[in-house]
From TrEMBL:
Reaction catalysed by this enzyme: L-threonyl-[receptor-protein] + ATP = O-phospho-L-threonyl-[receptor-protein] + ADP + H(+); L-seryl-[receptor-protein] + ATP = O-phospho-L-seryl-[receptor-protein] + ADP + H(+)
Family stated for the protein in its record: Belongs to the protein kinase superfamily. TKL Ser/Thr protein kinase family. TGFB receptor subfamily.
Membrane topology: Single-pass type I membrane protein
Lineage, highest ranks first: Eukaryota, Metazoa, Chordata, Craniata, Vertebrata
Keyword Zinc among record annotations: no
Name of the protein described by the UniProt record: Serine/threonine-protein kinase receptor
GO MF annotation terms: activin binding; activin receptor activity; ATP binding; metal ion binding
Length: 478
């Protein structure tokens, strides 16, 4: 048992203080912990309670924080109520001023000689022809966040080609930690760079918290920490759930809004620099749902930034290692134009496939079939590049629309299907832009909601009204 305290008890709707009985797996050790702040000598308790198996807490009978000067103090210990008292004992202790002075005076002559020798070596080497630059295999941490606050990995929520995603606890909130092995440092570096690009704070882009490196040498891991959403990815959500007409429109509109913002090239923002246009590895696995089903775009390991006057680089290789199922025809053919608009149109092809996934699980048109990935019916769950080239490029096939979708009352789903077709058009230049998709879905949703008849007698009149309304023109494509 541990003493319990939560400074945010009102917000989290919990008790303020009391006793917490610790429970866990039989082979795991249990601990108590405490966290607090020191505001100019005034101790402000943040939280106390049970802590799961952590080797840093093993055999500690007292709760002692050892960091030099953290923003939030944290300690853990073993034994009932061991977190009743907290202590701060910085380790190691700082050497005295006298000792420091003695060391400085002793090393000064040696240091001056070393500087002279280094300067001589530098001058000599710069007279030689260069032998090329060797990359440092050990990327530096991008933020000091985790050195200041305790972070505990709880459970793996997803696995992917570049690493896995953990649900973790950072003080009194849950966060997501994406863990990359050191071999995938390029993906980690790219995603970190995109997250740290000016203007990346948006309601439909996953909130970035920090990044850092854990461990040393070949055992090192690279972490990216973001906000956590329990519903997980859109793909996983659709596997186990159907959506209503309103929910489908909300998800589709919010994901299109996020992608439209990513695709924008924005001048210098207030307090921030220029935000370049960003192309994304778009698919339903890379869309996360908040608790209210608002979509946020995540996973920027293969994203491409388009700085003015700079080529996008060797991005063709990146696209080829993306998910085959969502590759546009021009990518499958290996015939892409290395210009910004070409990459944005590749995203829009994938938007059409994701919208199809949403429509396929919408209960507005019964019956709802089981969830299938795009082209799963045509090429199965693990298609080869050749399979998709045959189906998508040569036969120009797309996932099929079911008859009930096209006969949906008020023509709402039929109009969504029309938008889907204009997203995955074989002619890349004919595809809609993300902004146009957002505008269309918003208009379709408003029309359906506003014109829903109270009785069946009005259905025929309403259908005529909706189908006679012009959607945003196709000229608003990229």
């Amino acid at each position: 048992e541990c003493l319990y305290y939560n400074v945010n008890y009102e917000v989290e709707n919990t008790n303020r203080s009391g006793v917490e009985r610790c429970e866990g797996e039989e082979d795991k050790r249990l601990h108590c912990y405490a966290s607090w702040r020191n505001n100019s000598g005034s101790i402000e308790l943040v939280k106390k309670g049970c802590w799961l198996d952590d080797f840093n807490c093993y055999d500690r009978q007292e709760c002692v924080a050892t960091e030099q000067n953290p923003q939030v103090f944290f300690c853990c210990c073993e034994g009932s109520f061991c977190n009743e008292k907290m202590t701060h004992l910085p380790d190691p202790s700082r050497p005295s001023i006298q000792v420091l002075n003695m060391v400085i005076y002793s090393l000064l002559p040696v240091s001056m000689l070393s500087v002279f020798l280094l300067a001589a070596v530098w001058m000599y080497r710069h007279r030689k022809p260069p032998y090329g630059h060797v990359d440092d295999p050990s990327p530096q941490p991008a933020s000091p966040l985790l050195t200041l606050k305790p972070l505990q990995l709880l459970e793996i929520k997803a696995r992917g080609r570049f690493g896995c995603v953990w649900k973790a606890q950072l003080l009194n909130e849950f966060v997501a930690v994406k863990v990359f092995p050191i071999q995938n440092k390029e993906s980690w570096q790219n995603e970190t760079e995109v997250f740290q690009t000016p203007g990346m704070k948006h309601q439909n882009i996953l909130k970035y918290i920090g990044a850092e490196r854990r461990g040393n040498h070949l055992e090192a891991e690279l972490w990216i920490i973001t906000e956590f959403h329990e519903r997980g990815s859109l793909s996983d959500f659709l596997k186990g759930n159907v959506v209503s007409w309103t929910e489908m429109c909300h998800i589709a509109e919010s994901m299109a809004c996020g992608l439209a913002y990513l695709h924008e090239d924005l001048p210098r923002l207030k307090g921030e620099g220029h935000k370049p246009a960003i192309a994304h590895d778009f698919k339903s696995k890379n869309i996360i749902l908040r608790s209210d089903l608002t979509a946020v775009i995540a996973d920027f390991g293969l994203a491409v930034l388009f700085e003015a006057g700079k080529p996008p680089g060797e991005t063709h290789g990146q696209l080829q290692v993306g998910t085959r199922r969502y590759m546009a025809p021009e990518v499958l053919e290996g015939a892409i134009n290395f210009q910004r608009d070409a990459f944005l149109r590749i995203d829009m092809y994938a938007v059409g496939l994701v919208l199809w996934e949403l429509v396929s699980r919408c209960k507005a048109a019964d019956p709802v079939d089981q969830y299938l990935l795009p082209f799963e019916e045509e090429v199965g769950q693990h298609p080869s590049l050749e399979d998709l080239q045959e189906v998508v490029v040569h036969k120009k096939m797309r996932p099929a629309f079911k008859e009930p979708w096209l006969k949906h009352s008020l023509q709402g789903l039929a109009q969504i299907c029309e938008t889907v077709e204009e997203c995955w058009d074989h002619d890349a230049e004919a595809r809609l832009s993300a902004g146009c998709v957002e505008e269309r879905i918003s208009q379709i949703r408003r029309l359906h909601t506003t014109l829903t008849p109270p009785t069946s007698d009005l259905v025929s009149t309403t259908v005529t009204m909706v189908t006679n309304v012009d959607l945003p023109p196709k000229e608003s494509s990229i």
